[in-house]
Amino acid sequence: MAAKRERRVDHEPVIENRRARHDFAIEDTLECGIELLGTEVKAIRSSQVSLGEGWVLAEEDPPKLTLRNVHIGPYPPAGVHRQHEPTRTRRLLAHKREIRKLAVEVRARGASLVPLKIYFSKGKAKLLVGLGVGRRK
Description:
Elements (H helix, E strand, L loop, with lengths): L14 E2 L1 H6 E11 L3 H8 L3 E2 L4 E5 L4 E5 L2 E2 L17 E4 L2 H14 L2 E10 L2 E11 L3
């Protein structure tokens, strides 16, 4: 029996926040899932995303990650009544121990959690979050 070949989709967009790597020294990264609405997924696939102003909030008790101030543009074919709010707060999906570890690092060292990249992996939207320390000028 022939082995199943993995399908590669090269037209999937990768949205990067290059400015974050310039402003911060990234020490650690974490890949998270994102809880999105249907029109948001379609807008990301059409590259209507801005990560530049975004940031991530880590709460230790209960462990929770939220993505704030990331602009995902409207998806016009969805119509007027089915649109999402462009800069709404979105929940990030990660293991509790990873969230607690990031929350402790942020609180102890005064670091920041910044979104670095949004991409698709096996049909699911993923966000790469970086633990960044501000660079000295």
